[in-house]
Design brief:
With about 170 residues, the protein is α+β, with helices and mostly antiparallel strands. The protein is built from four helices and eight strands. About 30% of the residues lie in helices and about 30% in strands.
Length: about 170
């Protein structure tokens, strides 16, 4: 699986540093700053070594797919004004015969940040687990995705192992 090494290192450093206390709340987003450009996110991921699809648009949804070794994950864009979006969602789907609703429930009970749901297999298909991570953008600087992407890359791998998609290490 492609590891965006600089992103992972940034996440480790960010998680190790204590959170700074702030007296004034930070606004979620100013009305004049609609968010990050879809193309800027695509270009940023490509610059970090990701194999990123073209921008997809269908039925009012916008997304890009990222091929990451044996896994393809997706970023959906929401709250868009023209090509600038205020919210994004990372998502991935895992399918295999051993995935159970209990596995997904255990994940949601025991873990933070990534939330998952179970889809039973239909018509002879394997069951699936879909995992998602939502981010509210704070302005138009795409670099704000550094920590979020690093967290996603780490936890999506852990989730894939938890549902039996990836082999457990050791």
């Amino acid at each position: 699986m492609i590891r965006f090494a600089t992103l992972a290192a940034a996440a480790v450093m960010a998680l190790a540093a204590p959170a700074a206390a702030s007296a004034a709340p930070v606004p979620v987003q100013a009305a004049t700053d609609p968010g990050v450009s879809v193309e800027a996110v695509r270009a940023w991921l490509t610059s970090k070594g990701g194999v990123v699809s073209t921008i997809n648009r269908q039925d009012g949804e916008t997304w890009i797919s990222i091929a990451d070794g044996p896994l393809t994950w997706v970023i959906f864009f929401y709250g868009c004004q023209a090509d600038a979006c205020g919210d994004i969602q990372y998502a991935a789907s895992f399918s295999n015969a051993n995935i159970t609703q209990a596995m997904v429930n255990d994940w949601n009970r025991d873990r933070r940040f990534l939330k998952a749901y179970f889809l039973p297999g239909q018509g002879g298909e394997d069951p699936s687990a879909v995992v998602q991570y939502d981010v509210l953008m704070q302005g138009s600087d795409v670099e704000q995705l550094t920590d979020h992407t690093a967290l996603w890359l780490d936890l999506v791998s852990v989730f894939g192992t938890a549902v039996g998609y990836f082999a457990a290490a050791g």
